[in-house]
């Protein structure tokens, strides 16, 4: 899980695409999955994800391994729906699959996109909203900094959990030990410290204006990629309507 929400360090056609193109693709795929909830649509989206993973050279080791209790909860949900009928179980599994597919789509964006490219892309995509006096650059910067902070917080949480496991069992099982409160408090202090360090680093590099600058522009490859994504989305909707 070390590559969770981090860019896979490799060079590929997917990595070289403009970040805005990939954000638009994720939005389109998410809309299709929500608007056309069917197994054919899921199959088309999964095929598109596998193609993206192959072209993007994403190794299988980058995929996080869900804990056993997650599968146990999914199985428990299926057993709860079983008395209602087999159709209820299929609908439940379909909803779970939708959630996993949307999660995989978001992770694919994180694996193939540098976090430094997210803010400029969001600022460019939201440029038409400036007509309504909306602070697009500030929103883009805040979103990019939040996304960039998540991997750091995840690493800190894993470190805290590992440190707790090293504590003596007598201390962990004592009545005075409150692990949840300790983890929440420590995470809050770490988040404040990380945000302060990030603010100092941003100020030293010239302020937040450079974060939302526009160093990249969409190219011909971005147009081709969007065409493929739109074709896949249209195919998913068409299959849903035809096979209904």
Description:
The chain is mostly helical. Helices cover 68% and strands 0% of the residues. Helix 5 packs antiparallel against helix 6. It is globular and about 55 Å long. It starts with 18 loop residues before the first helix and ends with a helix.
Fold blueprint:
Blueprint: H1 19-35, H2 39-55, H3 68-81, H4 86-112, H5 118-125, H6 136-165, H7 169-172, H8 179-204, H9 220-242
Helix pairs in contact: 1-4, 1-5, 1-9, 2-4, 2-9, 3-4, 5-6, 6-8
Which secondary-structure class do the elements indicate? mainly alpha
User: How many domain modules?
Assistant: 1
Distance between the termini: 38 Å
Strand content: under 5%
Described by strand count, sense and barrel closure, the largest sheet is:
none
Shape: globular
Mean pLDDT: 82
Oligomeric state: single chain
Percent helix: 55-70%
Radius of gyration: 21 Å
Strand element count: 0
- Enumerate how many helices there are, as a single number: 9
Low-confidence stretches: none
SSE order, one letter for each helix or strand = HHHHHHHHH
Membrane topology: Multi-pass membrane protein
Keywords: Membrane, Transmembrane, Transmembrane helix
Protein name: Energy-coupling factor transporter transmembrane protein EcfT
Subcellular location: Membrane
């Amino acid at each position: 899980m070390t590559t969770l929400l981090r860019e896979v360090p490799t060079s590929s056609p997917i990595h070289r695409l403009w970040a805005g193109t990939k954000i638009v693709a994720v939005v389109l795929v998410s809309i299709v999955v929500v608007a056309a909830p069917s197994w054919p649509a899921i199959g088309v989206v999964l095929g598109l994800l596998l193609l993206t993973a192959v072209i993007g050279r994403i190794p299988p080791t980058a995929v996080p391994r869900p804990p056993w209790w997650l599968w146990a909860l999914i199985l428990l949900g299926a057993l709860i729906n079983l008395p209602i009928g087999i159709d209820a179980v299929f609908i439940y599994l379909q909803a779970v699959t939708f959630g996993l597919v949307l999660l995989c789509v978001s992770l694919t964006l994180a694996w193939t996109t540098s976090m430094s490219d997210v803010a400029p892309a969001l600022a460019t995509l939201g440029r038409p909203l400036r007509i309504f006096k909306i602070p697009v650059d500030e929103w883009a910067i805040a979103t990019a900094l939040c996304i960039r902070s998540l991997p750091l917080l995840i690493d800190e949480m894993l470190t805290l959990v590992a440190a707790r496991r090293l504590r003596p069992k007598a201390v962990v099982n004592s009545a005075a030990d409150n692990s949840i409160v300790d983890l929440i408090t420590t995470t809050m202090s770490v988040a404040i410290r990380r945000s302060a360090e990030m603010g100092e680093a941003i100020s030293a590099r010239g302020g937040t204006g450079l974060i939302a600058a526009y160093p990249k522009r969409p190219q011909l490859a971005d147009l081709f990629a969007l065409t493929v994504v739109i074709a896949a989305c249209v195919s998913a909707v068409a299959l849903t309507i035809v096979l209904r």
